[in-house]
Amino acid sequence: MSNEDIQKGLAEIVEEVAGVAANEVTEEKSFVDDLDIDSLSMVEIAVQAEDKFGVKIPDEQLANLKTVGDAVNYIATNK
Amino acid sequence: MIDVADILPHRYPMLLVDRVLDIEPGRRVTAVKAITRNEPWYADAAAVSSSDGAAYPPALLVESWAQAAGLVFGIEQPNPDVLAGRVMLLGSLSDVEFHRPVLPGDVLEHRVRVARAVGETVIFEGECVVGGELVFTVSRMVVAYRPAGVLREAGGEQRT
Q1: Which residues contact B38 (CB under 8 A, 6 or more apart)?
Q2: How far is A35 from A29, CA to CA, in rounded Å?
Q3: Cα–Cα distance between A5 and B72 in angstroms, integer?
């Protein structure tokens, strides 16, 4: 699965959970500052990403995933 | 025996859990609620004149299930006073599917499991059954725990 596929999959999750249009979910965007995603939605996104990509995102790692790109890279390296 | 009124702040007519059957604090709970006609939602006689009209309101079924979820962490940190301690806030419910109506006389068995807990955010999942038959399933309920003091400040006017 390419980084592009991961980003696309992640964007679908973000759209479903937080109601942010999938095309807004680009690598440089910050979940909190740009996409206005709160801590509750972030946890929900992480859980769905774990199911979708078969990756484990530990609690302490979640806080480090500031941008969409961070999350894509994390999923790509750990899946 | 666990008294749910010692743990949850809800009171009549909104306390919608009767008894805990089994609980693993922080992980899961099985709790029951008996449905009776003697609840306020059946006060309008017209609403109970047909079997369809006697179906328990689905929103209250989920409320009852969510209250059972409140016991999972509440048992270790009881909060019968909603104006103090940690308050459980509903963030979202996803993929709730109803399979059968509930009628007076039914006994709901709520099965609630913690799918994930990150800090003060918890995701619950589970189902409700009556006599072994599935009533509804909940894929995800996201809940946040916040100190009551913070919420009162945010709310502005305080209740006296």
Answers
A1: none
A2: 7
A3: 38
Q: Coil, strand, or helix at residue A19?
A: coil
Is A43 at the interface with chain B, CB within 8 A? yes
Predicted complex ipTM exceeds 0.85? no
Q: What 3-state class would DSSP assign to A56?
A: coil
- Cβ of B123 within 8 Å of Cβ of A46? The answer is no
**Residue B96 in this model has a pLDDT that exceeds 70:** yes
pTM of the model: 0.85
Give all domains of chain B, ordered by start, each with its CATH number.
4-159 (3.10.129.10)
* All residues at 6 or more sequence positions from B150 whose CB lies less than 8 Å from its CB, including other chains: none
Q: Which residue has the tokens 């599935």?
A: B134
Q: Which residue has the tokens 């702040």?
A: B9
Picking from B6, B53, B15, B59, the residue whose alpha carbon sits closest to that of residue B34 is: B15
Nearest to B115 among A39, A40, A47 (CB): A47
Give the three-class secondary structure for B154.
helix
Query: How far from the centroid of its chain's Cα atoms is residue A68's Cα?
Result: 6
Q: Residue B144: its chain A contacts at CB < 8 A?
A: 39-40
Confidence of residue A21 (pLDDT cuts 50, 70, 90): very high
Q: Select from B92, B125, B89 the least CA-distant residue to B110.
A: B125
- Cβ atoms within 10 A of the Cβ of A54, count? 11
Check residues B14 and A59 and name the one with the higher pLDDT. Answer: B14
What is the distance between the alpha carbons of residues A73 and A7, in angstroms, rounded to a whole number? 9
